[in-house]
Structure formats: C-alpha cells, structure tokens
Amino acid sequence: MTDRRRRRTLVVDGSTAYLWTVGHRHGDARPCEEVLTLHRDGVRTRIVFRAGEGRYVGSVAYGHSGGVGDRHHHLNLNRPGVVRAFVDEAVARGLLPLDGDLDGWELFTAVAVGRAAAVTPGVAPECPPGP
After folding, report:
1. Model's pTM, two decimal places?
2. Labelling 60: which of 13, 35, 71, 101 has CA 20 to 30 A away?
C-alpha cells in the first residue's frame, strides 16, 4: 500500500524543482475539495478544486481520489504530466510563486484543453477535444 500524501518531485526546465502532493479535504459547511500542493524554496502554493455546480472532485460516483472535472473534461491530479501542465499554466499567468491558495478551476479549462490537444496530433491547440 502506498502513502497517498507522499511528496513527489517535479523538475521543470532541468533546474526548478517542486515537491508536490495531492489531498482531499472537508471544511465546516464547505463542499469537498481536492488540493494540489506545490512546495518550492519554502513557498507553499495550494491549487484548490472545490466541488460545486457542474464540477466534481475526488471519489464521487465513479470518480477517484485526485480526480477533478466538469461536464466536459476530467483530470487526474496524481499524474505528473497533469501537475506539470498546472505548473506551466500558473507560471505563464504569473501566479507562481505564491504562498497561499489558487482557485484550480481558473486554470482547469486551459490545462484540460492543452492536455487533450497534446495527445491529439494534427489538431490546433485552440480546438476543443471531441468528435
């Protein structure tokens, strides 16, 4: 059995290292949340996905721990490629480094569409996935 909260390392550009974990949390009178936590140079950034209308997190229905999605896309926060895509998107928007919380849904669609385009050769990146 593995430790779901183990810290894993993601190296970006050959020299920038992030330690990262994925967790699930519940708050008083708040919906469930999946949290991708990034640690770099003493700064802790939490990318938070809160369940809500049309958005799901964690192991609801046929989901799994680390799963986040909406009506159109699903991402697994346990996959290093997905974490890298969130890091790249947050850096591109000037959001990293940040000591605090980021709303993961603000980055979600860009990451999901980018990941889908990456696995669909010959399709323009701005094209939505699907038939």
Report:
1. 0.81
2. 101
